[in-house]
Amino acid sequence: RRVHARLFFLFCSGLVAPATQAAIVVDGRLDEPEWRDAVQYRDLRVVAPYLLSPTPDSATTAGYLLSTPDGLVVGFTLTQSDDYPRIRPRQDTRADRVAVMIDFDADGRTAYSFGVDLSGSVQDGVVTNENQLATDWDTDWTWAVGEHDSGWQVELLLPWTVAPMRGADAPTRDIAVHFSRTLGATGEQVAYPAVSPERARFVSAFERVNLAQYRKALLHVWPYATVTHDRLEGDQRHKAGVDLLWKPSPTFQLGATVNPDFGQVES
Prior knowledge:
This protein is mainly beta. The chain has one helix at residues 262-266, and strands spanning 39-41, 45-48, 61-68, 71-79, 97-103, 110-117, 122-128, 132-134, 142-148, 151-159, 172-182, 189-192, 207-212, 218-230, 235-249, 252-258.
């Protein structure tokens, strides 16, 4: 029989364009004074089921949005009393989770979804045609979850290179946002603005906001090496290569590979 052993080495470089680092530390605690300057979203309404009633007092939600040189920083503060037991995801079960969807061009065409559940698991995706979510999109962003006696908090950092954006050189940009929270104990969902993907008009109904914009460049380099040993034939092969992702602005991206591994090409 043949036994194949493969070893991969991964290296990711940092941002190539120098910039002042954001004062926000993504640690699941919204304790920096900069959060006082954030745009706040508090009037979340029940949209699943589509009642449009206020958020229950025992499970209040607040969303926060900040623009920093490193990207958009999103925060959630969530109270949760014993009326709503905290539910972590298990197979085929509901879970406590939050999500923010952002239309970076504020034109109602495409939104990008970033979701985090209580255990710290994440899901990202792209929404097109108003309410069609595809989750096979993956991108580079940072998150953290922090729990305390009366609830939990979530922080997200979405780099300026996270998605394509028109007008990336302007000092400000209009975006449209949607904040939501799912209560795992009941399956209820609350959101601001109070629109639901179950309705025909969704992305185009997001809340518009104007924020400072920063130009950012990104360079990722992934060298790899593989060793394959054929025990039947006594043959051993070595292979090395490198993958490159360069994104000098949100409007241009270059991907390249030298001597690619088949699995990497498929990915």
